[in-house]
Every structure is written in structure tokens, then in C-alpha cells.
Design a protein that fits this description.
This protein is mainly beta and 307 residues long. Helix content is 8%, strand content 52%. It contains one helix and 20 strands.
Length: 307
């Protein structure tokens, strides 16, 4: 009976010791095979795809042409002949100004549209007094007309990018009013002057706006594409490690992780271009690579989304 109790106790202690060993190995995210230390890792394949180098900036949307009109004569606004949102042609009559003076009779003066466009805003009400002035600060605006079939965004770009930025460069614009929708435009003007205070130059971007989705005054987030590459090698950014100003990855061959130096190109949100050191289809580690040594045995636990 005593021998039986001793045997049961020995088996229990042995099982408890094994459980602790297994728990310790699992907690360290490592396993052992025949005495060889094996690190558990997550991997993915080197793929090919498109990559863009871009400048991110912000600006405000304005009409291609925006004209604020004022009265050339003294008087009161007799009537508006248009409403906000009305489309008008160049020469259309917009506002009647009553310039009657006591004891004198004048024909009503007209404010006409100088461009094709849309009535964007009336600044005054009927009956309001208007006075012309040679001083621009004293002039009272009456109505605004804008052409928004095409809109523009003015942004300020750091001088460090100006050597790579070209007219006609593709742009992608987003606004809060249309989440997830991208409006494509192009750079149409790069100012020749660099502002001494900000070390930036003004850049104008034009965007087709036939549906009039983009409104003057909207806040715009802009990406200017300064370089685009297709069919180039890509890996997730988390595959890249740095050491002494050099970049490297761990490539898995069979069950062995080998450290390999690489050259990187354009960085995107989650991926980076590889210009040297890898081939399409090779397997690289994206989790478990920190602290890993060259020629380490690894156990692939899971694979990345693009494998």
C-alpha cells in the first residue's frame, strides 16, 4: 500500500513539473525540439504592387473664378434679380440699384455678372444703402458670383520638395462631406517665390467639379503624387528592422530564419518598397523578429494577410 502511494505521488510530482516546463516555454512564445531552441513567428510573402511617394498637405477649396461685386453708384438696393444658387451667364443682370436723389430722377443702375457661374452669396438685403468708394477697405460687397465647374485648392509646400514637384503632377483630394471619396486633380501652378518666413511656396491645384460636389470654403486634405511605381516589391513595414543605419529582414528558408540586409524605397501607410535584397514570393518574418538571431530555428504559427 505504501509503495502504491509513493508511486502515485511520484507520478503527480512528475506531471506537475512537466506542466510548469510547458507553461514556461509557452509563456516565452518558444518551443523546443530535440533540445534545439525554436522561436514562434508570424510570416508573410514578398509581393509585387503599386507604391506612391506623396506630399500630404491641407488647404481650402475656392472657385476657379470668384468675383465679389459692388455698386458703382450711390443709392439703395431696389431688388435682387437672382437667388443664391442660381446659374448665370456673363452679362446677366443681378441687382437693381435705386439712385434717386430728392428733386432728381435717375434710371435704376444695374449690377451685371462679369462671368459665367453661380450666385454664391448675397451680402446685403433689399433696401440696404450702398456707396462706391476709392478705398478698398470701405467698399461694401453686394453679391458674389463664382465658376465652380472647376475648383482650385491653394496649399503651401516646403522648399525641400520643390525640386521634385512638377506642374501637372497628379493629386488626390478628400473632404469631410464625402467620406472615402477621392477627387483627382493636378498641379497647375507652382509659385516662383519661397516665403522667407515659412520657407514654403504656394501651389495651386485644379479639380474638375461638374457635379458641384466641392464647394468654396470646404477644408481639403491633399496628397500630391511626386512619384509612382508599379509592379515593385513590397513587404509590411513591421518586417523591416534597423541596425547601425542599415535595414534588414529575416527570411525563412525551411525552418531557419536568416538575417538579410535590404534596401528600401518608398514608404506607404503599412508597407514599404524593397529595391534590393529580396525576391517576390520569399517568406519574411513580421512578428517575432525583434531580438531574433541569425540562423535561428523558427516555428511558423500564423501567416500574414498577403501570404
Amino acid at each position: 500500500m505504501k509503495k502504491l502511494i509513493i508511486w502515485v505521488l511520484a507520478i503527480f510530482l512528475a506531471a506537475l513539473g512537466s506542466f510548469r516546463v510547458i507553461k514556461t516555454i509557452k509563456g516565452d512564445n518558444e518551443q523546443s525540439r530535440e533540445g534545439v531552441r525554436i522561436s514562434a513567428v508570424e510570416v508573410t510573402q514578398v509581393t509585387k504592387g503599386e507604391v506612391e511617394d506623396k506630399i500630404s498637405c491641407v488647404g481650402n477649396i475656392a472657385g476657379q473664378e470668384m468675383v465679389t461685386l459692388m455698386s458703382k453708384v450711390s443709392g439703395k438696393i431696389d431688388s435682387f434679380l437672382v437667388k443664391e444658387g442660381d446659374k448665370v451667364k456673363k452679362g446677366d443682370e443681378l441687382v437693381l440699384i435705386d439712385r434717386d436723389i430728392e428733386g432728381m430722377k435717375y434710371e435704376k443702375a444695374l449690377i451685371k455678372s462679369p462671368i459665367d457661374g453661380m450666385v454664391m452669396k448675397k451680402f446685403l438685403d433689399e433696401g440696404s444703402q450702398v456707396e462706391p468708394s476709392a478705398n478698398p477697405l470701405m467698399r461694401i460687397p453686394v453679391v458674389m458670383v463664382a465658376n465652380i465647374d472647376t475648383v482650385k485648392v491653394l496649399v503651401n509646400i516646403s522648399e525641400k520638395y520643390l525640386g521634385r514637384l512638377k506642374e501637372n503632377a497628379e493629386t488626390k483630394v478628400e473632404v469631410d462631406a464625402y467620406p472615402g471619396e477621392v477627387f483627382v486633380g493636378e498641379v497647375t501652378r507652382i509659385a516662383p517665390l519661397v516665403d522667407l518666413a515659412t520657407r514654403t511656396s504656394e501651389v495651386e491645384i485644379r479639380i474638375a467639379n461638374r457635379e458641384h460636389q466641392l464647394k468654396p470654403g470646404m477644408f481639403a486634405r491633399v496628397n500630391i503624387i511626386i512619384e509612382k511605381k508599379e509592379n515593385t516589391l513590397l513587404v509590411p513595414i513591421k518586417a523591416i528592422l534597423s541596425e547601425n543605419n542599415r535595414k534588414f529582414v529575416f527570411v525563412v528558408n525551411g525552418s531557419i530564419a536568416r538575417k538579410r540586409e535590404v534596401k528600401t524605397g518608398i514608404y506607404q501607410k503599412d508597407s514599404v518598397e524593397i529595391t534590393k535584397g529580396l525576391n517576390a514570393g520569399e517568406i519574411v518574418i513580421i512578428e517575432g523578429n525583434y531580438g531574433l538571431k541569425d540562423n535561428t530555428n523558427v516555428l511558423i504559427e500564423t501567416t500574414g494577410d498577403i501570404l
